[in-house]
Amino acid sequence: MRKVLQKLKFRVVVIFLIVMFGVAFFSVKPAQTQQPVTLNLLMTAPDAEPWKQGIIKDFETKNPGIKINIVEGPNATDLLENLYTSAFILGDSPYDLINMDVVWTPKFAAANWLLDLTDKITEAELAAFSEKDVEGRRYKGKLYAIPMRSDVGMLYYREDLLKEAGFNPPESFDDLIKISQALKDENKGRWGYVWQGKQYEGLAAMFVEILEGFGGYWVNPETLEVGLDRPQTVEAIEFLKNTIQIGISPPGVTTYQEEETRQIFQNENSVFLRNWPYVWPLANKESSPIDGKIAIKPMVHTKNGSSGACLGGWALGISKSTKHPEEAWKAIKYFTSEEAQRKFVLQAGFVPSRRSLFLDPQIVAKYPHYPQLLKVVDKAVLRPPIAQYAQASDILQRYLSAALTNRITPEAAMKNAASETRQLLRR
């Protein structure tokens, strides 16, 4: 019996020692053998390359325990949104970081697909970003994404032609029409003003700027009041129709998207252009006919309205289903930092979301128009930050396109659009 007990004690001691060794071993070993955490991020294919070659490499070097896996999606942002939406609806999204267009934030937040980031960052830290960029990432007072890059609609114009003719840059819609008529040159195939008139999201983005200029509004996000059937909305539509009727905009403008209008302007066939910041580096290439001949400003307005630059841009949020929220937040903090954004802007030519970078000497040396671009950013207006934005935009696009192509009067179009939008918001 004594021998048996001695053997049992020995075995207990051995087992205890093995357990303790195992605890000690595994408390140290994971740091050496643990696989890096991988964060999946979906984005359009053209955006993927500058991310991979620049800030992702830098982040992974600084954070060897975290890898960023870029999933390349379609170029069209609406198709990208559909991919994100499908992934969320089907269950746990495979995406940890969510790269969001500004108009997606309310929808994703309302559907409870995003982590609330409000307590992750202070208001003092947020003050470093463009105010409107931050506002566009809130929903019902909570913050769901951090701005990564900004984007705003702007009015381009041929500075050389205006100076030669003795015109100052336009401040009102009347100025825009007057200068366009004076500088339109049929012999050279030059139009006065080109804009995006096709039935797609770009039409809604363009229209909110004109609507702001006439003192109108689409949907008040606080009260959900709809302003589409107000007189200012009809006046905004009549202005756009008038540019076609008097011949300063081409008849085909109601079929144009961004690229068609850019090519017309860049080929010296228009005095004014409404478009996004991506046009600037293309129009100012050495091979461009208008290199060094253009300038920018916010959209013109009436005395009762104000300049409006439709806010675009992208921000990073965190999927509520991610298994790595802390690592995802660490990635967002780096990608939206001043250091990373400076490199991103210099390499890829994107518009920063941090205000200081518009005046950064290194960036201004490469993009001298950025201080002027900051003035446009400060005039930014949001498309309605409502959960039902996609449906509301579809309603506006359909009726606005019908009015611009003379299939229905502006008054009737906006009466119907307002009625359908109110029904949508009530549901």
Task: Describe, in plain words, how this protein is organized in 3D.
The chain has 427 residues and is of the alpha/beta class. The protein has two domains: 174 residues, 3-Layer(aba) Sandwich (D-Maltodextrin-Binding Protein, domain 2); 196 residues, 3-Layer(aba) Sandwich (D-Maltodextrin-Binding Protein, domain 2). The strands form five sheets. The chain has a four-stranded antiparallel β-sheet with strand order 3-12-6-13. A four-stranded mixed β-sheet has the order 8-9-7-10, with helices on both faces. Strands 1-2 form a two-stranded parallel ribbon. Helix 11 packs across helix 12 and helix 19 runs antiparallel to helix 20. The radius of gyration is 27 Å and the shape is globular.
CATH topology of the largest domain: D-Maltodextrin-Binding Protein, domain 2
Mean pLDDT: 91
For the record, give the distance between the C-alpha atoms at the N and C termini, rounded to a whole number.
82 Å
* CATH architectural designation of the largest domain: 3-Layer(aba) Sandwich
- Coarse structural class: alpha/beta
- Strands, total number: 14
Helix content class: 40-55%
User: What is the percentage of strand-forming residues?
Assistant: 5-15%
CATH classification, class level of the largest domain:
Alpha Beta
CATH H-tier superfamily of the largest domain = Periplasmic binding protein-like II
Structural key phrases:
single chain; D-Maltodextrin-Binding Protein, domain 2; about 425 residues; 4-stranded mixed sheet; alpha/beta; globular
Give the arrangement of secondary structure elements.
Layout: H1 2-28, H2 30-33, E1 37-44, H3 45-53, H4 55-62, E2 66-73, H5 77-90, E3 97-101, H6 105-110, H7 123-126, H8 131-135, E4 138-139, E5 142-143, E6 146-150, E7 154-158, H9 159-165, H10 173-183, E8 191-194, H11 201-213, H12 231-245, H13 258-266, E9 270-275, H14 279-283, E10 294-297, E11 309-310, E12 314-318, H15 325-335, H16 338-348, E13 351-352, H17 361-366, H18 370-377, E14 380-381, H19 389-404, H20 410-426
Parallel strand pairs: 1-2, 8-9, 11-14
Antiparallel strand pairs: 3-12, 4-5, 6-12, 6-13, 7-9, 7-10
Helix pairs in contact: 11-12, 19-20
